[in-house]
Description:
- The chain is mainly α.
- The protein has one domain (about 50-290).
- The protein has 12 helices and no strands.
- The chain has helices at about 20-25, 30-45, 55-70, 90-115, 115-120, 130-155, 160-190, 195-205, 215-235, 235-250, 265-290, 295.
- The longest helix has about 30 residues, at about 160-190.
- It is globular, with a radius of gyration of 22 Å.
- The chain starts with about 20 loop residues before the first helix and ends with a helix.
- The mean pLDDT is about 85.
- It is found in: Cell inner membrane; Cell membrane.
Amino acid sequence: MGGDSAPSTVPPLTAPGHGNGLLDVFRSRYLLNLLVQKELKVRYRGSVLGILWSYVKPGMQFVVFYIALGVFLGLEQSPTNRSGMPNYAIYLFSGIALINFFTEALGNAARSVVGNSGLIQKIYLPRQLFPVASVWVSAVHFLPQVVILAFVCLLNGWHPTISQVAVAVAAFIMVALLATGLGLFFGAVNVYFRDAENFVDMLLLVATWASPVLYSWEMVHNKLGPAWFAVYQVNPLSVAVEAFHLAFWYPTTAETVAMVPNLLSVWAPVGMAISLLVLFLGQMVFRRLEGRFAQEL
Length: 297
């Protein structure tokens, strides 16, 4: 009839606890910023050194590995040891900085959902915010280390170019994507099976040694041969670390040092593709499991 109003449109029902994944994280940038600030404040509450503790660990790692490998095992090139690596200290620190970003990001992201169980049980907000915030906090710790690395490289004759900076940024993005994808996966699985934390700890223990952080890629190539070395290079961490070496360490070497064959033309695109695939799979698993987070926690 003419006096009747048009029927109201009823929005479709959606399952509770499900969102739009990482798109919700982008839309909730303000909440992400708050979570990052909260995590930084809670982590260093009551600490004398505060955020400086994030540099004590890589600093101690660098000193221990440099003395053990560079000095005692002769990986540092010197007038009496021409078979060592030139500027091994820069080679070592550039790898440690990047791999520590990965280990911190993944370790914290895998525990982030369980660690924020009280907040998850009280209100609904995009749950992907917690692993992503953990990666951002790790990036906050990582970037000043890169500044120190760049300063030391400048003192050793580094003249940065746009291509070198682009390679370094691409390596960082590759590791960040990988850490986020694995963090989403293990963060969700950890809600149901707390053994996931122990598995992540073992994975992080292997990460430093499974990439050319402490040794050169030529050692791996000479021991394994071309076929197995190709398998070794499928690891995005290996590609990212070597790309970091290409950006920072390689320009400081007075001698010509061989780099990984096809690093930028083949392995870098492969590593980026694998990191994106891990991110997609991690996000898919997270979205499938997040519906019962509040009940399981």
